[in-house]
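Example (one chain per record):
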Amino acid sequence: MYTVSYQICTNPAVIPAACDTATATITVGAAADMGVAINGLPATAAPGAVLSGPGVSLVCTNVSATTAATNATCTAAAGTPAGATCICWRLRGQQR
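Predicted structure:
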């Protein structure tokens, strides 16, 4: 189980600060084999048990890409070490 705490504040900042703090809990359990081995070779994992279930919707993207994936796939680049895990994300708000 992983716990991630984060804070979102208005931009530009105001006084007094207008922020909200939240905590997300991520429980990682055994999932059905999706048939994709990440062993240093290029691979793409299709949406499956790992990316579904109750709670937060998860979308994985390659951070070097200029556009985000819209089909909930996770792509591992060639040379990714077996067993490595990285969870990176960026929140984007709607421009007003």
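Caption: The two ends are 36 Å apart (CA to CA).
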